[in-house]
Amino acid sequence: MRLKKFDRYKENLTQVDSKIFSYETHVASIDVADDFTWRIIQHGWWSRTTQKHINYVANHYGYPIVEMDLGEYETGHLNINK
Prior knowledge:
Blueprint: E1 3-5, E2 13-16, E3 19-22, E4 25-32, E5 38-42, H1 48-61, E6 65-67, H2 70-74
Parallel strand pairs: 5-6
Antiparallel strand pairs: 1-2, 2-3, 3-4, 4-5
């Protein structure tokens, strides 16, 4: 298990492997798309502060943010539990 804290939001923003946590809630995941491009999968709509956390991680890595596609998740094409 790899734990990462970011320069900004050190107390409330954490990455554990590919999972992004705002406070103690798993709010997004880092994933690779079918075309081998990296992206941030956002798990729903969040408060303004949590959205800032997700945006910060996306900018930190230079990855786009996409909303979670439940169909893709349910068919197993989106592995957010890496």
